[in-house]
Each structure stands twice: as structure tokens, then as C-alpha cells.
Automatic annotation (TrEMBL):
Name of the protein: 1-deoxy-D-xylulose-5-phosphate synthase
Lineage top rank: taxon: Bacteria
Key words, A-Z: Isoprene biosynthesis, Magnesium, Metal-binding, Thiamine biosynthesis, Thiamine pyrophosphate, Transferase
Entries under InterPro entries matching the protein: Dxylulose-5-P_synthase, THDP-binding, Transketo_C/PFOR_II, Transketolase-like_Pyr-bd, Transketolase_BS, Transketolase_C, Transketolase_CS
Domain Transketolase-like pyrimidine-binding: 317-481
Pathway noted in the entry: Metabolic intermediate biosynthesis; 1-deoxy-D-xylulose 5-phosphate biosynthesis; 1-deoxy-D-xylulose 5-phosphate from D-glyceraldehyde 3-phosphate and pyruvate: step 1/1
Organism, scientific name: Desulfuromonas versatilis
Gene3D superfamilies the UniProt entry points to: 3.40.50.920, 3.40.50.970
Function of the molecule: Catalyzes the acyloin condensation reaction between C atoms 2 and 3 of pyruvate and glyceraldehyde 3-phosphate to yield 1-deoxy-D-xylulose-5-phosphate (DXP).
Similarity remark: Belongs to the transketolase family. DXPS subfamily.
């Protein structure tokens, strides 16, 4: 029974609770989070790690007057429970339910929409600057993880904050983990272990040296002992932030209410930029998540008693797994092959690669821009880098792709995972803009495999190609296409006619090919005979095949899981217009709005991108009666508790 949580009417109530009651509240919040995430899936370990921190923040600061700006926002479940969302919490991440991330439209306590990392310091600094222009007095607090701090964007924020000298509090939630163990010089610097090890070693060596000096050694030793405290201060992470103009407080034990509350209260009285360094444990309070925080970072439904993950849609292998395995094969055969991830080792399927080829694997931290330019450097010196990246996160590195890779025509492969609708993470994570933000870049070849066998061919083609090459594939399982044999390169820009038809032609790309084939089959029963073409490449398009079919049938339907603006359908329109060919054209894709969260199936149905939706759109367009099609576009009703 969540008695304290259930009776919490506002965050003001927190100020009346004793430390013992706060601890009970923390337990209740953890139970609630575990129960809900075990049913719905979600970001468990990060949220469990900041339960005490969230309670302490809401006790000391007065949200929504004071602003708490969460970075990434995947750790904000306790914040949601504390700010009036307990009753709806069971709808977390479901269609029509609570978002898995802070969202301004969801609550006045969510002051900045988020999902991508490392935005909190910049956003909070903007709010602080606006407050000062308005003459306001509210406190602005950014809460950023040690993983998110590895991004250049976070440092751009720190840099300006120190310069502007605004009243701003940055809480560094340091659990020494990104999704995987955190990487890089910064993470070693922050690490308590490193600073204390280094300190102890220096101390030992100095004592040794001085003890062996016959005359002045003893005097110098006592002097050195007196210098010990300042040396200790010099070696703590504080010196980094102080260098940026911040006051540094910490490290504070992030699971002790007495320490946390006192430190936050003290900091709330300071003026100017202050950083409070809080040490937490990812997964705190739930043994399976503490033992394996990477697995429980973002997890599907699981058994809360055992922590065992429930079986998903079985059967076929995931695109990610096929990608990871194929890249290992390529690396075995070609010593030039190297792989780069921006903190998404597991998510991009590079685990096996990193173990087999540690010297050819780079996790650069949450630094997509750097990942791409770093790849350009590797390619300049004869290597064949693959940047494995989620489509949505590559948005960060548009100019690096254009300026550092494509302008120099460098052989960098972009393996874009999570292309299309990703599901429960929602609008911040759907990879539905990459066709539009990449296809206009000169030199770039862009292939979109329709199944996992073609993904392997895309990878072989990328490796054989002497220039920038992108391929995108979706979240989840493949179609079960046979994978035997080594993958062979295919001719650049060559499409495939997959189905014959007389009345029109569907040009479908990527995951939409299977849906288009099913739709064409259903429409055949109404007497409409449609050909289906997979261009295989978004760029270059197979001019001959596409124009030939368009001229022959006079009716073109394009289908894509991308924004219609600037996407595949737009590319087809350009091709037709440039060739002076004018068939009737229907474009099916994502509308000019951000698509919400839900399961991939729900969202495809919602957007008319499943077979039933494609059938309906074509029926309307050609004036056929809308006979019920199998799985007829019914989208589940919004989740309720
Ligand atoms: C730009 C961007 N790249 C990658 C991610 C994927 N991602 C989400 S959380 C996360 C790790 C964040 O680590 P940290 O900030 O330390 O938070 P923790 O989970 O440890 O609490 C990553 C890499 C993202 N959300 N945004
Ligand atoms: C918060 C975040 O950005 C990641 O944790 C992301 O949610 C992972 O998505 P996948 O579950 O598709 O790997
Ligand atoms: Mg962390």
C-alpha cells in the first residue's frame, strides 16, 4: 500500500514529512515504478537511482515556480509520481498514456520537453537568463547524468553559464554509468575511485621520497602533510567545474536524505552558477537492476519477482542482431573495418564486435557530432568506419555528415538503426526524418533494406563503395528472410519489381514494402491490379525502373515510413517532374506533425502505414468502395488505468 504517496496532495506536503517518512515514501515510489515498468517496459534503473534525489529536490525547491530541468528525462518517473501523476502512472509509455519523458503539455512541473540528452544546462541557462530579464526570483535547477555530461552540448552550456554568471544550479547525478559503463577521460576524472587512488599513490610516493632524503626529509614531510588538504582539493572533480566558473559542492551521497537535503538547502541560498555533485547507484533498491544496470536501463516487460525479462514477439531475429553479426563477419575479412558508437553499444548491437575487436571499436560517449567527424578522420587515413547510430540521434550530427564526410566524399558507412516509428519512446525517438535530412546531400548513397537479408546486402554494398553510404533499418524483428551465405554487394541504385500489375504501381521502400505487397494483394480482390516496386535505394533512385512503371501504368502510389515532407515520395515527384512525366500520384507517409507514442503496430495503424491503411488510402484515391480490409485500421483506444 502506497500510503504516503497516495495521500500526497502536492509537493508542499513533502516539507512536513519526517526523514523516516521520506524513506518510506522512497520505498513506495520504488515499488510503484517497479510494478509499472515490469508491466509496460521503460527506463527502470535510471529512475530507481534518483528516487531520493527527486524527493529531496521537490522538498527543497518549489516546483512549478522553481524549475527542475531533467536531462534526457528517462529518469523522471519519481518526479512524475511526486507531481500528481500517480493515478495515471499505469499508462506510462502506452498509446494515449503518460509519456516516458517530461512533457510540458503533461504537467506544469515538466518545464522542458526532452528525450535526447545533454540539453538541460543550456535550457536551464536560457530560463535563468529569461528570469533575470523579467526580474523573477525563481530557482532554476538542471539535473544531468554523468553520461549526458560527456556531450559537447553540455560543455557549451557550462561554458556560457560560467561566463554569464547567472544564478543557476546544476545537479550532476553521477552513477558512473551511461547505458553501459560511462567512458572517456571525463568519466575517469569524475570517478571517486580514480581521484582517491591517484591521491593515495601521490601521497605514498611523496612520503617515500622524503623519508629517503637524509637531511631535510623529515621537515619537508611535515610540510607536505600540511599541504595534504589542499592537494586533495586540487584532485577532486571540483577543479574542473570551478575552472568553468561554478561553485562546486560534493560529492554528496545521493541516497541519504539528511546529506542531500542539507546540501540542496545550502546551495539554494547561493548566488551564481553552482554545481552539486551527487553520487547515486543506478538501479538502487532493486537487486536485478543494481546487478545489471545496463539491461535494466531500458527494458521490456519483466517478472518483478525474479527480474526475468518476458519473452517478446518470438520467431525472427532483430535487425540490430543481424547488423552486429554481419559487421563482425566484415571485420574478420577486412582489417580496415572499424566500428563507432555514441554510447549505444548494446542498442546498436555492437557488443560482440567490441569484444572481438577491442582495438577497432570506439565508444565515444554521447557525442554524435564527434562520432561522425572522428569517423571522417579514420576514413581519411585508409580505414572503413561504420558509425552505428539511431536515426533520431544522427539528427544531432547533420553538419558533420555533410561537411566532414560527404563534402570530402569519404567512405564512411552510416548504419542507422531505429529508422521509422520506434514505439513507446514516442516523438523524441521516432527515426522518421532521415530520408529528408540526408537525401539532398551530394555524394551520399542511401539504401533502405526491406528485410534483414537485404540489410546484409546493404552492408556489403557499403563496404565495397568508395564514398559515404547510409542505410536505415527499423527497431524490432526482421521478416524472417533467409540469411544463408555471405552477403554480396548489389549494383548501386538498382531497384526490384516485386509484383506485376496493370492498373498502377506502388513504389514502397524499407519496412513499407511488406505492407504494400499485402495491400496490393487485398486490392486485387476488388479488381485493382497493382504492381509493386522496391527501389532499394532512396538515393540514387532507379530512374529507368520507376519512370518506366509510372509511364506504363499512369498511376503511382508511394509508401514510406518517413515524414512526407522531403521524403521518398517527394524524391519520386522530383524524378517525375524532371522527366516531364505526369501520372496520378498518391503519397502515403507520415503527416506534418509529430507522431505520438504507442506500440509500433498501433502507430502504423494510426498513420495508415499498415496494409489496411494503405488499402484504404488507395481505395479513396481511385474511388473504390472502402470494403473492409483485414485488420482494418482500428487503433486501440488510449490507455487508461
Ligand atoms: C543525443 C542522445 N544520444 C543518445 C541517447 C541515448 N541515451 C539515453 S540515456 C543515455 C545514457 C545517459 O547516461 P546518464 O546521463 O549518466 O544517465 P543515467 O541513465 O546513468 O541515469 C543514452 C546514451 C540520447 N537519449 N540522446
Ligand atoms: C532514453 C534513451 O534515449 C534510450 O534509452 C532509448 O530509449 C533506447 O531505445 P531502445 O529501447 O530502442 O534501445
Ligand atoms: Mg549515469
Amino acid at each position: 500500500m502506497s500510503e504516503i504517496l497516495q495521500n500526497l496532495t502536492s509537493t508542499e506536503d513533502l516539507r512536513r514529512l519526517s526523514l523516516a517518512e521520506l524513506r518510506t515514501l522512497a520505498d513506495e515510489i520504488r515499488d510503484q515504478i517497479i510494478q509499472t515498468v515490469s508491466a509496460n517496459g521503460g527506463h527502470l534503473a535510471s529512475s530507481l537511482g534518483v528516487v531520493e534525489l527527486s524527493i529531496a529536490l521537490h522538498r527543497v525547491f518549489e516546483s512549478p515556480r522553481d524549475k527542475i530541468v531533467w536531462d534526457v528525462g528517462h529518469q523522471a518517473y519519481a518526479h512524475k509520481l511526486l507531481t500528481g501523476r500517480l493515478a495515471r502512472f499505469c499508462t506510462l509509455r502506452q498509446f494515449g498514456g503518460l509519456s516516458g519523458f517530461p512533457k510540458r503539455e503533461e504537467s506544469p512541473h515538466d518545464c522542458f520537453d526532452v528525450g535526447h540528452s545533454s540539453t538541460s544546462i543550456s535550457a536551464a541557462l536560457g530560463m535563468a537568463a529569461a528570469r533575470d530579464v523579467r526580474g523573477g526570483r525563481e530557482k532554476i535547477v538542471a539535473v544531468i547524468g554523468d553520461g549526458s555530461l560527456t556531450s559537447g552540448l553540455a560543455f557549451e552550456g557550462l561554458n556560457q553559464a560560467g561566463h554569464l554568471d547567472k544564478d543557476l544550479i546544476v545537479v550532476l547525478n553521477d552513477n558512473e554509468m551511461s547505458i553501459s559503463p560511462n567512458v572517456g577521460a571525463l568519466s575517469s576524472f569524475l570517478s571517486r575511485k580514480m581521484t582517491s587512488d591517484l591521491f593515495m599513490r601521490l601521497k605514498r610516493e611523496t612520503e617515500n621520497l622524503l623519508n629517503h632524503m637524509p637531511r631535510f626529509g623529515r621537515d619537508l614531510l611535515s610540510l607536505a602533510k600540511r599541504a595534504e588538504d589542499s592537494l586533495k582539493g586540487f584532485l577532486t572533480p571540483g577543479m574542473l567545474f570551478e575552472g568553468f566558473g561554478f561553485d562546486y559542492v560534493g560529492p554528496i551521497d545521493g541516497h541519504r536524505f539528511d546529506e542531500l537535503i542539507e546540501a540542496l538547502q545550502n546551495v539554494s541560498k547561493l548566488q551564481g552558477p553552482t554545481l552539486i555533485h551527487v553520487a547515486t547507484r543506478k538501479g538502487k533498491g532493486y537487486a536485478p537492476a543494481e546487478e545489471n544496470p545496463s539491461l535494466f536501463h531500458g527494458i521490456g516487460p519483466f517478472d518483478p519477482e525474479t527480474g526475468k525479462v518476458k519473452a517478446g514477439k518470438g520467431g525472427t531475429r532483430s535487425y540490430t542482431a543481424v547488423f552486429g553479426e554481419t559487421l563482425v563477419e566484415q571485420a574478420e575479412q577486412d582489417p580496415r573495418v572499424v566500428a563507432i558508437t555514441a554510447a549505444m553499444l548494446e542498442g546498436t548491437g555492437l557488443g560482440e564486435f567490441s569484444r572481438r575487436f577491442p582495438e577497432r571499436f570506439y565508444d565515444v560517449g554521447i557525442a554524435e557530432q564527434h562520432a561522425v567527424t572522428f569517423a571522417a578522420g579514420l576514413a581519411c587515413h585508409g580505414l572503413r568506419p561504420t558509425v552505428a547510430v539511431y536515426s533520431t540521434f544522427l539528427q544531432r550530427a547533420y553538419d558533420n555528415v555533410l561537411h566532414d564526410v560527404c563534402l570530402q566524399n569519404l567512405p564512411v558507412a552510416f548504419a542507422m538503426d531505429r529508422g521509422g516509428l520506434v514505439g513507446a519512446d514516442g516523438p523524441t525517438h521516432h527515426g522518421v526524418f532521415d530520408y529528408s535530412y540526408l537525401r539532398h546531400i551530394p555524394n551520399l548513397v542511401f539504401m533502405v533494406p526491406r528485410d534483414e537479408a537485404q540489410l546484409r546486402r546493404a552492408m556489403a554494398t557499403a563496404l565495397a563503395f568508395d564514398g559515404p553510404f547510409a542505410y536505415r533499418y527499423p527497431r524490432g524483428n526482421g521478416t524472417g528472410a533467409a540469411l544463408e551465405g555471405g552477403a554480396q554487394p548489389v549494383p548501386i541504385g538498382k531497384g526490384e519489381l516485386l509484383r506485376q500489375g496493370e492498373d498502377g504501381v506502388i513504389f514502397a521502400i524499407g519496412v513499407s514494402v511488406a505492407e504494400a505487397l499485402a495491400a496490393a494483394q487485398q486490392l486485387q480482390t476488388q479488381g485493382l491490379s497493382l504492381a509493386v516496386v522496391d527501389p532499394c535505394f532512396l538515393k540514387p533512385l532507379d530512374r529507368e525502373l520507376l519512370l518506366g512503371e509510372a509511364i506504363r501504368t499512369g498511376l503511382v502510389i508511394t509508401v514510406e515510413e518517413n515524414a512526407l515532407q522531403g521524403g521518398f515520395g517527394s524524391a519520386v515527384l522530383e524524378l517525375l517532374a524532371d522527366a516531364g512525366v505526369s501520372p496520378r500520384v498518391l503519397r502515403i507517409g507520415l503527416p506534418d506533425r509529430f507522431v505520438e507514442q504507442g506500440s509500433q503496430d498501433e502507430l502504423r495503424a494510426l498513420c495508415g502505414l499498415d496494409a489496411a491503411g494503405i488499402v484504404r488510402s488507395i481505395q479513396r484515391f481511385v474511388g473504390l468502395p472502402e470494403a473492409a480490409a483485414a485488420g482494418d485500421g482500428a487503433v486501440g483506444s488510449p490507455a487508461i488505468c
